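Lay summary. Proteins are chains of building blocks that fold into shapes, and those shapes determine what they do. In this project we predict the shape from the chain. Here is one chain we studied, written as its sequence of building blocks.
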Amino acid sequence: MDEQLLSVGLDVGTTSTQLIVSRLTVSNQASGFAVPEMEISQREIRYRSPVHFTPLLEGNLVDGDKIRAILEQEYQNAGISRHDVDTGAVIITGETSRRENAKAVLEALSEYAGDFVVATAGPALESILAARGAGAVAHSGATGETVFHMDIGGGTSNLALIENGCITCTDCLNVGGRLLKVDKTGKILYISPVLQELCPFSPGDTVTPGELQPVAELLVQALEMAAGLRSPTSLLTKLRTKELGTHPGCSVQNAVISFSGGVADCIENRQEPFAFGDMGPILGQAILKSRLCQGVYRLGTETIRATVIGAGCHSTQLSGSTVFCQNIPFPLKNLPVTVLSKEEQSLTSDALISCIQGKLNQQDTLSVLSLPGFSSPCYRDVKALAASLVSALPSPALVALEQDMAKALGQAMALLRPEGEILCIDRVRLQAGDYLDVGAPVGPAFPLVIKTLILER
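And here is the predicted shape, written in a compact code that computers can read:
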């Protein structure tokens, strides 16, 4: 029998803030004679909020009180309460994720937005959500085409390389329409520090659209470099977001370029240069004339709403169905991930215990242990791994495996820790730096949100 989850997505971006409410249908895709295989079979958007300008205080700080008021009003408009919400994501994106009060704003919103709406940020996750929300992942999966998706917003451009429907690489550049704000007369109100050395103007100067054209063209050149259409220079390194450090970039060849984000609406639809109080329309027209649009390109099925739809419809996934849970209270939120490699997993018992404890000591809070597992384990392998995990892990013992063996491993651990708190889930691939949220089970599976919490200090 199908089950349904109510999901909320809230995106607090550099320029805009918006919310969607969607209904996720969870179905068993296996036959009646097989182990259940739970999947999210349908995603239906039930409500879309208007696009609000992100409210800021003096010093370009996010106004948490006004964001909260927007959220409360949109919940009323959608006809839902916080107790109705099962899953979703609150994400703070672009330049707003770097405001000094961003973390406090996220925490305040997360508390209001229900038990399993999560607060997330980080360029890799934004790239993934935007690519999914814009339909770029679905397009690649349906056509077999390689797609390089660009979600170009107010402060950042989140990039994703998609091959055969799978995201294989992400990147993020400080390229966006609101890096420079102007009034209707062309008077500059704000210039992002990102544009230092790239922009000859200062706040208070009055400029024409033509004078901003060279700045827009420089930003577009960086996008061309990221897409493999221009040889990379120090400009690309300068504009890559600090969170990514020395990111090697994506190896892009013969890809269809795909666009979403607010600036995407200014590529084919020519707007007045200062219509939105920034250089977004000028940047959009510079993209249209660039190498990015000389070959095959496409606009997303969603543009300015791509990220929030990704957050509301595509942030949640399901674990495998052969799982084990004992005495665990849900939901579990913001669990840092400790990763074991295949080689570390194969260490002898004492060495494995020491390795796990050493890694856990580097965390200052409860962590979930991620390991590959075994493809076809015998009982001896499962029993030996369980003994090492019980010796090494504190309570609750939280384990995520890639291979489909969580139920057997959890049962073996429970024999050694009969009254303990134990959770073993599988079919989950995690990386160092990830955080995990786990909700109460839907049928035999658990809803998960894998995220990256990266806030620049």
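What the prediction tells us: The longest helix spans residues 209-226.
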